[in-house]
Amino acid sequence: MTYDFDLLVIGAGSGGVRCARIAAGHGARVAVVEARHWGGTCVNLGCVPKKLMVQATEYGEWAEDSRGFGWDMARGTHDWERFIGRKDHEIERLNAIYVRLLEDAGVRLFTGHARFEDAHTLLIGPGPLAPHAEPRRVTAARIVIATGGKPVVQPHIEGQELGIVSDDAFHLKARPDRITIVGSGYIGVEFAGIFAGLGAQATMLYRQKLPLRGFDMDMRQALDEAMGERGIVRHAGALLHRIERDRSALKLTLTDGRELASDMVFFAVGRQPNAAGLGLDNTRVRVTDSGRVITHAGAVTDEPNIFAIGDVTNHQNLTPVAIAEGHILADRLFSGSVREWCFDTVPKAVFFSPPLASVGLTEDEAAAKGPADIYCARFRSMRHVLSGRNRHTTLKLVVDGTSQVVLGAHMLGEEAPEIMQGLAIAVTAGLRKSDFDRTVGIHPSSAEEFVTLRTRTRVAGATGASSHSGVQEVPA
Ligand code: NDP
């Protein structure tokens, strides 16, 4: 049987675009179909616009901090509409770059919503990008599902329709004066920082005692303090029960009966895979109850010619992971050699100000495996001694007590993501604490602390017990 294409990718996000380009580079006849926006979540409703928003917040702080260095700058006011316009302009530029990258690679582009008719045939019909598209049928030998995910609206909350999710937050007409964010994962923490940094009163509601469940406990503690320093009101151990309209504002009732007033409620309670409406019933592809496409080794689904990569598989929902998965799959299908990636040491960053970044094991994860040597430092950087800002840097190494291999590195402080990318190489390479110790520092920098940590702070897990202060996690 001959098909229109060797490979058809559904979804032009980070993973899909990389898969298509690499496959085309290997000589395959490739097509991509996209329903909503070229570049997917990362470019349009995620990493890129989020980082621009975080950067927007930094200028206000720098103006304030400059006084300590002799400048007479005032913080001034922020023009939300002007900023959003400039941000949108940049996103449009990136959309065009994605289209050009694919076209230059020889990939055929289809706009519209794709639906499986059988394991090799897609019906491409109208979608948000092409509302009046004439339906057309396209066949391919292999098909990749790279449709990503979308924000979850918290269920079982009366008045939940009055809240927004991250997709909406990028296009608000005006900045709310008071915003209440539900959830303290990546999105909750990052947007609390964004709204607070642009002048809103930001309040967070979350069910744990500390934000960012899953990250190292010392970093969570340090982040909690940094949030307080930025004026973010945190209600730990709190659950929202009801939202009601109250004239031009909203009235929020918590499950313990407390009431709060806010202008906007933002649900940041996780994301779900985008697998509905793809016609998967017409194939043997299986999906879990939570909507995740089930894959096996090699990203293959239960249908041997259909593959899935990125957030739709709900493994590690990060852009660079989706890119790596797309690249590996294209190599495996169309070339003899497969580029290698290590998924055990994927570095992570949460773009608060100051940001948090980490790679490898947390103290508790290491302690559960055996004794671990913990090295911690907390200091005020040179900049903030003069700026007068009450901002600290916290950093930490988690070292295997027996082999002395560095299992994890964690930092909350300015430039933490930039520093962690380099440290991730050392942790991925399995270097030992002695390799860190024999590395000469760069002075003066915050990063040099990672190679000058001489005195062990404590030993964790020697008795099998966690070394921590006993913060109890609330089950998810
Ligand atoms: P996360 O999974 O990171 O966090 C979800 C938050 O919502 C947690 O605080 C969780 O609480 C809470 N929550 C979940 N269900 C409920 C509920 N029913 N009631 C109350 N609270 C609830 O999701 P995000 O939406 O923040 O982000 C989604 C994913 O997107 C991330 O996991 C990450 O993979 C990716 N992302 C990555 C970024 C980056 O790399 N910088 C930036 C943004 C997103 P609890 O902890 O108690 O479960």
Question: What does it look like?
Answer:
The structure is a single chain. With 476 residues, the chain is of the alpha/beta class. It has three domains: 5-150 and 272-334, FAD/NAD(P)-binding domain (3-Layer(bba) Sandwich); 160-269, FAD/NAD(P)-binding domain, CATH 3.50.50; 348-461, FAD/NAD-linked reductase, C-terminal dimerisation domain (Enolase-like, domain 1, 2-Layer Sandwich). Helices cover 29% and strands 24% of the residues. The strands form five sheets. Strands 1, 2, 3, 4, 5, 6 and 16 form a seven-stranded mixed beta sheet that branches. Strands 17-18-21-20-19-22 form a six-stranded antiparallel beta sheet, sandwiched between helices. The chain has a four-stranded parallel beta sheet with strand order 10-9-8-14, with helices on one face. It is globular and about 70 Å long. The termini are far apart. Bound molecules: NADPH dihydro-nicotinamide-adenine-dinucleotide phosphate.
CATH topology of the largest domain: FAD/NAD(P)-binding domain
CATH homology superfamily name of the largest domain: FAD/NAD(P)-binding domain
Strand content: 15-25%
- The CA-CA distance between the termini, in Å, is 48 Å
Q: What general outline do the C-alpha atoms trace?
A: globular
Average pLDDT:
95
Ligands bound, unique: NADPH dihydro-nicotinamide-adenine-dinucleotide phosphate
What's the CATH class of the largest domain, please? Alpha Beta
